[in-house]
Amino acid sequence: MHARSTTITGDPRSVEEAVAHVRDDAMPTLERVDGCVGLSMLVDRGTGRCIVTTSWRDEAAMRASEAHVRASAERTAAILGGRPELEQWEIAAMHRVDEAQGSWSRVTWLRTAPDAVGRAVDAVRLSLMPKLDDLPGFCSVSAMVRRADGLTVAAVSYDSREQLDRAAEGAREFREEFAPSMGIETVATAELEVAIAHLRVPETL
Hints:
- This protein is of the alpha+beta class and 205 residues long.
- 36% of the residues lie in helices and 37% in strands.
- The protein has an 8-stranded antiparallel barrel with strand order 1-3-2-8-5-7-6-4, surrounded by 4 helices.
- Helix 1 packs antiparallel against helix 3 and helix 4 (117-132) packs antiparallel against helix 6 (168-181).
- The radius of gyration is 16 Å and the shape is globular.
- The relative contact order is 0.21.
């Protein structure tokens, strides 16, 4: 499966309006596009940063949807007063607890050599996933990759901000100890509110 993310940073005061637009207008429209498997939206209400991700049945469906997604991204960007940055990804791993969606997510961007992206995905599988199921409030973990660029983005979602904070030490150990030991660089990390959770990506593990 594949995904397209749209990142926009704009006016924090417009985040709620942008969420309403994506939920009420963009999502119903995009879900009628052939091959769409859902949509999620992460937000930082303090900075105005929003990440909208659409998931697709396969790469062909994702590419065919580009005009629809770009039009939606431009309307969302107009509300926020920012510029949309669109990126395409392969969904390498997805694991969730039942139908839990979560309300907060810790997102980590990782970089390796392009031919070592599988190592980063294995790091998520081997280091993060075995520890997550037993954590209070854990809802889901996913990993998306851009193999040609050597990029992996991992997102771990929890029921609440409090439970996200309780898991911070494990996340730090992964970024600062386990990942470097495998030759993986942490590019960035962010803690974001899950404003919309409707990706419906099937379990891949």
